[in-house]
Amino acid sequence: MVKRLLPLITALALLAGGRAAAVELGDLTLTSNSDEPLVATISLLDVEGLDAEAIRVMVAESEDFERLSLERDPVLDNLQFAVNLNAAGGPIVTLSAPVTIDEPFISLLLDTRWPSGRVLTEYTLRLEAPAFTAQTGNISEFSPVRSVVLDVPEEEPEAPVDDSAELAETAPAQTLAETSGTVETAAPTDTVAQPD
Questions:
Q1: What is the pTM of this model?
Q2: Helix (H) or strand (E) holding 122
Q3: How far apart are CA 155 and CA 84, in angstroms?
Q4: Which of 30, 91, 157, 174 is geometrically suited to a Cys-Cys bond with 44, CB 3.0 to 4.6 A?
Q5: Distance between start and end Cα atoms, the chain
Q6: Rounded mean pLDDT of the chain?
Q7: Within its chain, how far is the Cα of 134 from the centroid?
Q8: Cβ-contact 93, 57 below 8 angstroms
Q9: Contact yes or no for 77/59 (Cβ under 8 A)
């Protein structure tokens, strides 16, 4: 019985070991007041074996917002991101905007990419009024609402060039007809039959 299970256990171990780690975004810490340009940090998880240049974080495209039934606020176009794997508290993404965001709530969908994967992470940020911020302090933490791991298609080799398509494009006056496995070439027809 053990001899029968050993190949199965070995195969499962190899499959599990071959899976690439999925980079994740953790809690978002908002450190700016609502009357200031947005500044926040997001903890970055499962980045072993990657360098900062291999990880890209950006606001998701409009199609991704639509896919998750979210509205994309145009103010999100101003956000800037910086990945820091050597921060004192662990790897982070710094998020900043050069302008203030005058919205009480904002849905933020981030697209994180690395060589072997992609994940969309949603946050709902409550941007408090200055009176409330003064009472509660300058720091607000937000956990991800949801994360969606997307497949990254492997690059396929280029398809071979079809010479027959090129030939057909370069010789428009000829017509190719296939009959019982052979290809015959018909002469160009430049004349129109006149009735007698």
A1: 0.64
A2: strand 117-126
A3: 28
A4: 91
A5: 91
A6: 73
A7: 37
A8: yes
A9: yes
